[in-house]
Amino acid sequence: MKLLDKIKKKIRNSSDSADVISLSTINELFFNNQANTGGPDISEITYFTCLKTLAESIGKMPLYLMDENKNRIMDHDVMQLFNVQPNQYMTPIQFFTYLEYCRNHYGNAYAYIAMNGGKFIGIYPLDPRRIEIWVNNTEEFTRRSFYYRYMDERNGNSYWFLPDEIIHVKSWITGDSGLSGKSVREILATNMAGSKASQKFLNDLYQKGLTANAVVKYVGDLSKEKQSLLLSRIEEQARENGRRIITLPIGFDIQTLDLKLTDSQFYELKKYNALQIAAAFGIKPNNLNDYSKSSYANSSAQNLSFYVDTLLYNITLYEQELNRKLLTRKEQKSGLEFKFNVKVILRGDPTQQADVLQKLVSTSIYSPNDARRQLDIPPTKGGDVHIVNGSYVALQDIGIAYRGNKGGENS
After folding, report:
1. Using an 8 Å Cβ cutoff, are 336 and 66 in contact?
2. Most exposed residue of 274, 299, 358, 378, measured as fewest CB within 10 angstroms of its CB?
3. Counting Cβ atoms within 10 Å, is residue 380 exposed (0-12), middle (13-18) or buried (19+)?
4. What mean pLDDT do residues 234-255 have?
5. Considering 230, 257, 284, which residue would you say is the last residue of a domain?
6. Those residues with Cβ within 8 angstroms of residue 411's Cβ, 6 or more apart along the chain or in another chain
7. What is the average pLDDT score of the chain?
């Protein structure tokens, strides 16, 4: 069915049901009929892997509320949401995974802060496609206020929110004076289109049995209708039960066109394209299961590099946004702050972990019970005492044992 026919049918059906066709419906018809897209952006495997890696990395890190002495605060009402369920539909890991997915795929992630009598009762993620940012342009730019408008597609209602009522985490590149972010797929539109087109080409090639195009040669002339009928019969035979032999009328011959992916460097270009998309997300090749320059020995170093080069910025975005939206000025001044536990990312193998914990305990940074908690082992009696080598002395006391003696005699 042609595109205009589809639009006419949509309008006719909408008028019959007393509904008005929306602009999004027309856009959907246009975008779904682009022959070169090869499906939505998320269907591209490299793009999907990058989204999955970043979203799961943020989602699996526990969130703590710490005081100025780095003690965990457990009795704050917002921690009940982040430890058990932010809302009745999600667990904490699902909540942060969805926010990070929206932040990367749409450029912005939004969540509504529900309160009752000054107490947090829920945090609800919102669809970024239904959010508009309205800015008051009559004020000076230093005092210019803005509001969020959310359009609920289920009941058709619009809701207006103040900035303090919305958690808004955006991508690193922004427009509109920093009010909203832009997604990677918007920036890499040309690259993404080429990547999806290459995948669509491979899919078509597999459906044809990995055979190239062919030319049918015959003597004489055929009308356009008979040509179409002949080609349809040949294609039908080729696809029938995966057969490799077809029959032709007398005087007809078929010749395949030579197609070699190696000559066109198809694999090299596809791999390079995938690495370019991953680089835009800050994803390393080993996160894409490319271990050509990786080994088990340097896996810990790669995790550290992934944390420092990629995750640290994303984590800081969430921590700063949560600090300014979920903590009062008094709590902020007292030193309270949200912190993600990055140890789940940097945790090494058992041998490395044991070596690190031993050094931390022997230097009195950790108590034995602190180390046991890192291993999910219950504390032991007397294990909260910090221990250190008895031969250690304070810096100002170095040489105090020799100050009263000189050459073995009393001074």
Report:
1. yes
2. 378
3. exposed
4. 71
5. 257
6. 404, 405
7. 78
Range of the domain at 12: 1-33
* CB-based contact 320:358 (threshold 8 Å): no
Read off the tokens for 158.
């619009």
115 contacts 150 by C-beta, under 8 angstroms: no
Domain count, the chain: 3
Of the spans 42-46, 167-171, 208-212, which averages the highest pLDDT? 167-171
Q: Looking at per-residue confidence, does 364 or 376 come out higher?
A: 364
CA distance 3 to 127: 28
Instruction: Supply the pLDDT for residue 227.
Output: 80
Hey, what are 75's tokens?
């009795």
Alpha carbon distances (Å) from 404 to 197, 390, 395, 398, 400:
85, 21, 18, 13, 8
Q: Is residue 376 part of a domain?
A: yes
Q: Residue 383 domain-assigned?
A: yes
- Cα–Cα distance list, 222 to 228, 230, 325 (Å): 10, 10, 74
Q: Which residues of 191-214 are buried (b: 16+ CB within 10 A; e: fewer)?
A: bbbbbbebbbeeeeeeeeeeeeeb
CA distance 333 to 361: 32
Return d(Cα 411, Cα 177) in angstroms, integer: 75
Cα 63 from Cα 70, distance rounded (Å): 13
Q: How many residues are recorded in the chain? A: 411
- Total-model pTM: 0.68
> Is there a domain that residue 72 lies in?
no
Pair of tokens at residue 361: 């305990």
Mean pLDDT in residue range 80-88: 93
Any domain includes 175: no
CA angle 168, 172, 176 (to 5 degrees): 70
